[in-house]
Amino acid sequence: MSTEIYLDYAATTPLDPAVAAAMRDCLEHEHGNPSSQHAAGRRARALVETARAEIAARVGAPAERIFFTSGATEANNLALKGLLLTASSLARAGAGAHLVTSTIEHKSVLDAARALEDLGVAVTYVPADPLGRVAPGDIERALRENTKLVSIMHVNNETGVIQDVAAIGSLCRARGVRFHVDAAQGAGKLALDLGSAPIDLCSLTAHKLCGPKGIGALYVAPGVVLAPQVHGGEQEHGLRAGTLATHQIVGMGKAYALADPKREAPKLAALRDALWDRLRVVPGARQNGDPQRRAPHVLNVTFPGAEGESLRLALRDVAVSAGSACAADSPEASHVLTGMGLTDALASSSLRFSVGRFTTYPEVERAAAQVTAAVGRLRAYASGAPAWCAT
Amino acid sequence: MEYSPEVVRRFDSTLRAGELKAGSVGLVSGEAEDRTLGVWVRFQLQVSDGIVRAARFAAFGCPHTIAAADCAAERLEGTRASEIEALDVRAIQRELGVPVEKLGKLLRIEDALAACGRALPKP
User: What is the residue range of A371's domain?
Assistant: First the structure.
């Protein structure tokens, strides 16, 4: 029997059994191509459209404005590149089309932004404050006459801090600037109403919500024109070519249908708080991120004096992250935490815990006990170390 | 990051982490650090009659650093004090299966032992 305690729901989640059942049923019985006109194709198309409607309902969007992608990374790339690399903006690239984002975005946004810089797009990276918040006023001050897009995440994947996307979106609307929100970490866990929110583009994913990996979507508001980034077919109204992965889409639809922020968020917050109650007694332990404005499932804690890589090995039976799983192969400290002002040593002595649908209180207690013991052991190893190791 | 079984074994069960009794005769100490690499290592050696009788280490660093320091401390015991700087950290790196990109951290072990060497009483 596995003794692993899984507290890494912000990286990915286990498949909900109901999602698995829906996907299995699709795989076993519906092999048609949703683009085909025959009966098998029409049945597959119906499944796709049902899933699209389920996702749209969860985020308050018209179903026809949801476009499937391979995940949030592709959706983020499509949003940024699709908007900024249209023929007209390319022609003006020399004059410097402008993008505003923050220093604490997910790697898929930051790397897309850097790729755009290589193509002549000017990018402003707005810093976060020490609590991990991106101030709407800072975004406003970064806007220029030629700003075409602002991209800010809804919930930070490392700290769980909720950004004020309503305020940022409103100021973008007032200035006629398009606004993209990476909602991979928040959709389905927090209420999101794209029908009323001042958001033009919104990236979604399934696998953070007990759905399958390899499927996501981009919400595109009416009137927003994007240049496709994948060519080779007219799927998704020509915006994203490629045969639709029916079973993945069915799984995403089921995951969004099952998601119920009003019911689930209090349970997740209680688990997170129970974990913090047990970790806060570790001398020097401190939370990262605004404790008043964060998603219910994420807890980021610094344990000064416990070296990060050793801490992770000592906790190998507790699945947690030292930052984004998408950057886990990088030896560098978390760009999110250093962007909030932590030193490299403190950032690397930090762990992200994230609870989810199947987390239990006994798991939280066992994990906290193991963390406490590991931190104590590593601090004992480092007895007499210079101050920089813990500051 | 992947770790060899030997690195994991030593990391889980370090035998020579800790401190020797402060103020005891023949105690020498040396430390080294590289802040940019996030590593600090200190060795304490109990030397009598020119022989290292006991060795302990303290470290803030990755599992490879801790395992290598534990291995180094073990090997130092019983060697001539005049030979502590000859300890081959690269050999330990190879034996423990430490990735070459971690060599920079492990070399701080050599630096700490060199500091111990300088602290030895002159004959």
Answer: 5-13+261-390
